[in-house]
Design brief:
Rossmann fold; 225 residues; seven-stranded mixed β-sheet; two-stranded antiparallel ribbon; alpha/beta; 9 strands
C-alpha cells in the first residue's frame, strides 16, 4: 500500500465544508476528544460515500441508507468507535463491515494500514472505488465473511466491527495483538451495547460502554441471516 495522502488537497475539499465544520462541532459537544479523528472527519467528504440523492443529508448526525439494506453509520458512532481503538500511524487495523468506505477512510487517516472486509460484493466494489477517489491508498477493501477476520495480516493493533453481533466472534479476538483493542456492538437484532475488548497476556478485558443500534453482523460467527 502506498502512503495515504491528505484529504484537504483534493478537488472537492471545499464542497460542503461549512456542513462538515458543523458536524465536527456537534461531535465535540457530544464528547469526542481525539483531534486526529475530528480533523479527519473535517476533511473527508462524507457526501461522496452516500447515494447522490442523499448528499445534502450527509453531515447530519444520523445513519443513512447506502443500498443492499445497509447503512453508513452516524458520524458520532464513526468518531466514537475510531477514538476507542486508540491507534496511531504505526498501527494495523482490521475493519469489518466496510459498506461504502467512509469508516475505512476515517481509519486510514489515523492508522497506518487498514484491511477492511465487506460481505456484500456490490458494496465492497463501491467502497474500494470511493476510498481511491479521495486519494486513500493505505487501505483496501475485500469481499469476505468478516466474522472470520483476515488472518493473512494479523495480528492487528485494532479491530472495528460496524455491525451488531450476538456475541464476540472468537476469530477476531484471536487476531488481536496483545494490547490491541476490538470495538463492536453486541446484543440483539434491534438493540446492542458498544463493547471494547482489550487483549492482554492473561486473556481479555471487556468494557460495556453505551447503547447503540447497528445492522446485523451476518456470517459464520455472527447472525446466520
Amino acid at each position: 500500500m502506498r502512503p495515504n495522502r491528505t484529504f484537504s488537497d483534493k478537488q472537492f475539499a471545499g464542497m460542503y465544508q461549512p456542513q462538515r465544520a458543523r458536524m465536527v462541532e456537534v461531535l465535540r459537544q457530544r464528547g469526542i476528544k481525539d483531534e486526529r479523528v475530528l480533523q479527519a472527519m473535517l476533511e473527508i467528504p462524507r457526501h461522496l460515500f452516500v447515494p447522490e440523492a442523499l448528499a445534502a443529508k450527509a453531515y447530519g448526525d444520523h445513519a443513512l441508507p447506502i443500498g443492499a439494506m445497509q447503512t453508513i453509520s452516524q458520524p458520532y458512532m464513526v468518531a466514537r468507535m475510531t477514538e476507542l481503538l486508540e491507534v496511531d500511524k504505526e498501527a494495523t487495523v482490521l475493519e469489518i463491515g466496510a459498506g461504502s468506505g467512509y469508516q475505512t477512510a476515517v481509519l486510514s487517516a489515523v492508522a497506518g494500514r487498514i484491511f477492511a472486509l465487506e460481505r456484500i460484493s456490490e458494496l465492497s466494489r463501491i467502497g474500494q472505488a470511493n476510498i481511491r477517489k479521495i486519494g486513500c491508498y493505505n487501505a483496501t477493501i475485500k469481499c469476505f465473511d468478516g466474522t472470520l477476520g483476515w488472518s493473512e495480516y494479523a495480528p492487528y493493533d485494532g479491530i472495528l466491527v460496524a455491525a451488531g453481533s450476538p456475541d464476540i466472534p472468537e476469530p477476531l479476538v484471536a487476531q488481536l495483538q496483545v494490547g490491541g483493542r476490538l470495538v463492536l456492538p453486541v446484543g440483539t437484532h434491534d438493540q446492542q451495547t458498544l463493547v471494547r475488548i482489550t487483549r492482554t497476556a492473561e486473556g481479555v478485558v471487556r468494557e460495556n460502554l453505551e447503547s447503540c443500534v447497528f445492522v446485523k453482523l451476518i456470517g459464520r460467527h455472527g447472525w446466520k441471516s
